[in-house]
Design brief:
By secondary structure, the protein is mainly beta. Helix content is 3%, strand content 47%. The protein has two helices and 36 strands. The strands form nine sheets. It has a five-stranded antiparallel β-sheet, with no helix packed on it. The chain starts with 14 loop residues before the first helix and ends with a strand.
């Protein structure tokens, strides 16, 4: 989702300072970790079709891909336009839309892209595909397109006129919703796979993010601190958000995604401090960034989540682990370390200490801490990003694993160390 809210002149920090902030920032307790994107280009949307393969799009035609949950990202320029959204149905087949009405498709996991004819040069924002054949793309000035052949032919399917169409969400081949900006902004629903749409609700502000768990329960987020929930399929909405709305200008919530009905995240854009926040915990465990905006978030059922935004920002979290910063680094520590977990054996929860050496040794080497089963399969990711030098203690909840022997492995650059863990439930 691409949303520009504030002029770049309102940013008071240079890019070099931002880069340093990304490398060393850490709160006392945090589940969010910075990942190195190797770009300062603004990123607008993120999509992970599985736990390991992900795609991010941004300004200047930039597409980035990871095959290891964001530990490393490759870069590719496919256009000179701003890329607003990305949608993949698996690790190989996906689409990207731009602010020039372009739609790009790949069937090779992003190795190559083909340009599809749309018949418009208007900016496209909303994008959704049910499968390899059927999808929608929509955007400015009432642009609303549908394809039934994977995008080789895009046909106008305008349900009604609106200034801008913002976001889609489909539960299945029949039931879906979209949000649009106009006076007033609103929500429309289909129960016949998009053959017809019915306007079911008007909002006070544009809604840029939308997510539904089933035909009744869903969320939207948007302008002026708007975070809304429905339990009747979108006809009526209430606000679970308790944030102080006295800021001027007010913040805009830019994207929303969920692990499950109890765990979800939304991103924020605001010149005085943006971030990514939990839907169900007010403003509890979160990441607050006072320099730049975040524009999209993607969460998976595994508990992993990624958020992206200005200056190439990518942050990652794991629902399985929380990390406490214990102390600043000791200058005599010149290598990474991983201590055995305790208790061991353990029942569901255990603690793991690790150390990150001096910045000059670690700034180019992200830290990945993973859990492997006896067959060598990676079954959980506990840390996957950059840490400032120091000692840390990680609390790991292995509730999703069955009893048995596992291995905890820390990798950073050429350094790797493994410890053995015994889970007994």
């Amino acid at each position: 989702m691409s949303i520009h809210l504030y002029p770049s002149g309102m940013k008071f920090y240079c890019i070099s300072l931002i880069a340093i902030f990304i490398l060393i920032a850490n709160t006392t307790t945090s589940q969010w970790m910075y990942q190195k994107s190797a770009t300062t280009i603004t990123l607008h949307a993120v999509c992970f079709p599985n736990d390991f393969t992900g795609f991010v799009v941004g300004d200047s035609g930039l597409v980035m891909k990871t095959s290891n949950s964001g530990l490393k990202w490759s870069r590719q320029i496919i256009s000179d336009s701003k890329l607003n959204n990305v949608k993949f149905i698996d690790g190989y087949t996906g689409w990207v839309v731009s602010n020039q009405g372009e739609i790009f498709k790949t069937t090779s996991g992003g190795d190559t892209w083909e340009t599809q004819k749309t018949g418009t040069t208007r900016s496209l924002y909303a994008l959704w595909f049910l499968n390899e054949s059927t999808g929608w793309a929509a955007g400015d000035s009432g642009t609303f397109l549908k394809t039934t052949d994977g995008g080789y032919r895009w046909n106008v399917a305008l349900p009604f006129k609106a200034r801008r169409f913002d976001a889609f969400y489909f539960l299945d081949s029949k039931i879906g919703w979209f949000t649009y900006s106009d006076v007033p902004a609103g929500l429309a629903k289909t129960t016949d796979g998009g053959e017809s749409w019915t306007l079911i609700h008007n909002f006070g502000h544009a809604q840029y993010g939308i997510y539904f768990f089933n035909e009744l329960t869903g969320y939207t987020c948007g302008g002026s601190y708007t975070l809304l929930k429905t339990t009747d399929g979108g006809y009526n909405w209430s606000s679970p958000d308790t944030k102080d709305e006295s800021d001027s200008p007010p913040a805009t919530y830019t994207g929303i995604s969920f692990v499950d009905e109890n765990t979800g995240w939304f991103t924020e854009a605001h010149p005085l401090g943006a971030g990514v926040y939990p839907v169900h915990d007010g403003y509890g465990e979160s990441l607050r960034i006072k320099i730049y905006n975040l524009y999209d978030v993607c969460a998976r059922k595994s508990g992993y989540a990624w958020a992206v935004g200005e200056y190439g920002t990518i942050v990652f979290r794991s629902n399985s682990a929380s990390i406490d910063f214990l102390s600043d680094y000791n200058e005599n520590v010149n290598r990474f370390s991983l201590s055995p977990n305790y208790p061991n054996p353990f029942n569901s929860e255990t603690k793991i200490k690790f150390s990150v050496p001096a910045l000059k040794l670690s700034q180019d080497s992200p830290v990945r801490i993973s859990v492997f089963d006896v067959s060598g399969r990676e079954v959980d990711i506990l840390a996957n990003g950059y840490f400032k030098p120091g000692d840390y203690e990680l609390t790991y909840n292995a509730g999703k694993l069955s009893s048995g022997m596992y291995f905890c492995k820390l990798v950073s650059g050429n350094f790797a160390v493994t410890t053995k863990m015994i889970l007994m439930k």
